Amino acid sequence: MRPEDLQLLTTPGTVAVSGDLVLVSITTPDLDKNTYRGGLHRVFPDGTTSPWTHGDRDNAQRISPDGKLVAFLRVSGKSKPQLYVVPVDGGEPRRLTDLPLGAGAPVWSPDSSRLVFVARVPEAGRYGTTDDGPESEAPRRITRLDYRVDDVGFLADRRPRLHVVDLDGAVIEVTDGAHDVSDPAWLDDSTLVFVAPRDLGVSETLHSDLYTVPAAGGEVSLLVRGAGEVSMPFVANGSLYWLGTEFTGIDAVARNHGLWKSPVDGSAPVRLTDVETVDVERLSGQPVADSSGVLLVVRNRGALELQRIPFDGGPGEVLAGSSAAVRSFATDGSTVVAVVSTPDDVGQVEFVGTGVRTAFSSVPTRRVVELSGSASDGYPVHGWLVLPEGDGPHPVVMAVHGGPFMYHSWGFFDEAQVYATAGYAVVLPNPRGSAGYGQAHGQAVIGKFGTVDVDDVLSLLDVALAREDCDPERVGVMGGSYGGFMTSWLSAHHGERFKAAWSERAVNAWDSFGGSSDIGYFFADAYCGTDPEAQRAMSPLTYAEKINLPFAVVHSEHDWRCPLEQAQRMFVALKRRGVETEMLIFPGEGHELTRSGQPRHRKQRFDAVLEWWDRYLKA
């Protein structure tokens, strides 16, 4: 895969099924127009496909319970997503909403007469509600720590509210914006259940609970007090289910999400999955039920497995995703479909249990090899190696993932494929701190950044370098977010092992991160502790005088997760010492540049990465 091949990737997203109707959303980057395009495609039981809608970008499709209508979100040009419906037997889609900041993903009522969704409602005079530009807006009065979030922006002046819309397009606001709301579902035809912060967010909290409200509007009532964070409630088999974690205070990091259950009145909640070994991947979508249990995706050593959990709990049955990554899934109670990504394919729609898969256009890929070994303390290490063509020995790039409670997976990874196509062997470690290897594995770095995680990534690198096709004399290190932190740390403490470094959207100094990041007010203390000296000891910037190798500082201008000052401080510290360093800043982008940034910026970033490694690893 080459940088320009981004526009050849057709990525299947959400999927829906009802009888013989299977719909999948498709997304393709358009480098010429610098946007993403895609519509809904129908997938037939024999694996063939045909376009089903023709919007600029249609997604979040939901088939009504009676099987007669499809609701979906449509984005036209640079407009905000709006909610549409269309009959399953064809016809012109009909728009139901016209909201200034757009609508969220719809959820059908059980009787198929209405839909609930979340939409942010702007204060008068802000966010395009007048013809005046942002410079004419009044100042924002900030009184809370949780006042903004990356890739969204400021929060208090555009609170999310629950909306219900009928099939004639009559929209009502069910909540008033006094508190955050998310993840709506229907308890019955007249009652909604949703997620809100503890005590409806009267003060900053990492805890959330389940609440109910009449679908016609009215009083909000507490239904379930969560043990930590709750999300994605739904009703199945006569019971209420949701996903949740367990923690106290700010100790929310590196916690496995599990499946929980209670009667529909919210009493006596119980966790159905093991807290240590089962971690549900929420990015793969809302759990759903069939006649035998609850379907959800579980993180397992880099695999994202579609599992069926019995209604009363117990071990899950793996339905799809062994040595693969299930990105989305759906069932109508009998047919199960899933979007499955593999190392050599961005995603195929699979009719689970039939062997039928449908592929979309992709690109040539390079071979992926699983790696395993042991750290110096005997702890097992695990990851992957993506190999270029030829026998080598190849120059090596080790790429550390972000999080740290995330993972490299068995799914398609465009970055590794681009680097391998350019001639680099790419090492992808999942060190202690990563997700999918047990909760204890994820929590092993709390208060210990730069210790066991470093041992793990270097140990896996040694496993790769012991191969004849990898050149131990030409090795680079790179990563983003926590991976950027690790790149900076390794450059300072183990710089002799690398020829150059590419540190992207990094955390370099916990002291300023605590006050500048959208999550800094709790994240730094949760991972590093509250002692300023301990935070300083775990900050790569503290050791900048030890960095002597060529060092790229890469950041997005509007990154509020790891703010730009984290890059600036490192760049200035290195530049003043005479280190060979450059800073690359992407305008208008946030923390998610590499995954969902503007297509041209993604290509330009790939070009810059390859130029950097060609300069220092191929010379």
UniProtKB/TrEMBL annotation:
Residues 410-618 form the Peptidase S9 prolyl oligopeptidase catalytic domain. Signal peptide: none annotated. The keyword Ligase does not apply. Keywords: Aminopeptidase, Hydrolase, Protease, Serine protease. It comes from the Bacteria. The keyword Iron does not apply. GO terms for biological process: proteolysis. One of its GO terms (molecular function) is aminopeptidase activity. Gene3D superfamilies: alpha/beta hydrolase (3.40.50.1820), TolB, C-terminal domain (2.120.10.30). InterPro entries: 6-blade_b-propeller_TolB-like, AB_hydrolase_fold, Peptidase_S9_cat, WD40. This is Dipeptidyl aminopeptidase/acylaminoacyl peptidase. It comes from Lentzea flaviverrucosa.
